[in-house]
Design goal:
Shape: globular
Distance between the termini: 14 Å
Number of strands: 15
Largest sheet: 7 strands, mixed
Low-confidence stretches: none
CATH class of the largest domain: Alpha Beta
Radius of gyration: 20 Å
Number of helices: 9
Helix content: 25-40%
Mean pLDDT: 95
Number of domains: 2
Structural class: alpha/beta
CATH topology of the largest domain: Quinone Oxidoreductase, Chain A, domain 1
CATH architecture of the largest domain: Alpha-Beta Complex
Order of helices and strands: EEEHEEEEHEHEHEHEEHEHHEHE
Strand content: 25-35%
Length: 324
């Protein structure tokens, strides 16, 4: 028996139940890992509420974690018992131990703490694809990242700055503004007090931006379109305030022949080669010191409900982990 968080029905944080469940031995192609830590992400809330449909009920939530391989199934060659590993994009991390397809695991560098690795796989590889693939940030670009003090916002802001961009962020409190500025953001706008469209136009001299990264959703749309220059790219990768409402494609024409995309990490690490490339890029940029990962909140796994409440209330900054 292992300890895990189960969701038997979608709803509020109270549906997260700490229970004991059976866990079998790994089948062919699988590995069993013992978690050192589990990452907390907004996508966990989306599955809990039913915004994103889970494969079945009941289910164990969670998309990322890190730990040690304790058993492998037939045919597994990329990891062995005792290896330190991490992963993202595989539902079921809110547990002491789990089974997972072995080809979704990456080895954690010997000099990297497993708790750090657990905290950054989803957010860090999301930042990787956003600024390196969805739109390739170049030296001299000026970009906008909403929720600058959030997990992805902190990593993406530092990474874009490392690439030579001028980075504008938004945040909802002075504490979060100060945090983002301390991590290298050039400008951070208080979206609760200031009109971020007007502020961006002031900063850019009215030119607008080639790209805006928006994880907020409903509250920042369609204003995010208004900060873009002609043929600019609107990247919607989250819905912290609720989903972007349906809109007519003609709106993109109205604001200057804009492009819009709704990417997801799974599409960028679908193959083993893509997964390894993304993980290596993340490990390298963190090891270099160019990107600092801040694990600012730690909760016991049994307290996952409170952790999600705090995340939804925007009381958290940086990354958050659950400890089994």
């Amino acid at each position: 028996m292992i300890n895990a968080i189960l969701i038997r029905e979608t709803g509020g944080a109270d549906v997260l139940k700490y229970e004991q469940v059976e866990l079998g031995q790994p089948k062919a192609g699988e590995a069993r890992i013992r978690h050192e830590a589990v990452g907390l992400n907004f996508i966990d809330v989306y599955f809990r509420t039913g915004l994103y449909k889970a494969p079945q009920l009941p289910f164990i939530p969670g998309q990322e974690g890190a730990g040690t391989v304790v058993a492998v199934g037939e045919g597994v060659t990329n990891v062995k018992v005792g290896d330190r590993v991490a992963y993202t994009g595989a539902m079921g991390s809110y547990a002491d131990e789990r089974l997972i397809a072995a080809d979704r695991l990456v080895k954690v560098p010997d000099n990297m703490d497993l708790r750090l690795a657990a905290s950054m796989m989803l957010k860090g590889m999301t930042a990787y694809y956003l600024i390196n693939l969805t739109y390739k940030v170049q030296k001299g670009d000026t970009i906008l990242i909403h929720a600058a003090a959030g997990g992805v916002g902190q990593i993406a802001g530092q990474w874009a700055k490392h690439l030579g961009a001028t980075v504008i962020g938004t945040a909802g409190s002075q504490e979060k503004i100060d945090l983002a500025l301390s991590l290298g953001y050039d400008h951070v706008i208080n979206y609760r007090e200031d009109n971020f469209v007007e502020k961006v136009k002031e900063i850019t001299g009215g030119k607008g931006l080639p790209v805006v990264y928006d994880s907020v959703g409903k509250d920042t749309f369609p204003a995010s379109l208004q900060v873009l220059q002609p043929r600019g790219l609107f990247v919607s990768y989250g819905n912290a305030s609720g989903p972007v409402p349906p809109f007519e494609l003609a709106l993109l024409n109205q604001y200057g022949s804009l492009y819009a995309t709704r990417p997801t990490l799974g599409s960028y690490i679908a193959t083993r080669e893509e997964l390894e490339r993304a993980a290596q890029a993340l490990f390298d940029v963190v090891a270099s010191g160019a990107v600092q990962i801040n694990v600012n909140q730690t909760y016991a796994l049994r307290d996952a409900a409170q952790a999600q409440r705090d995340l939804e209330a925007r009381k958290t900054t940086g990354t958050t982990i659950l400890i089994p």
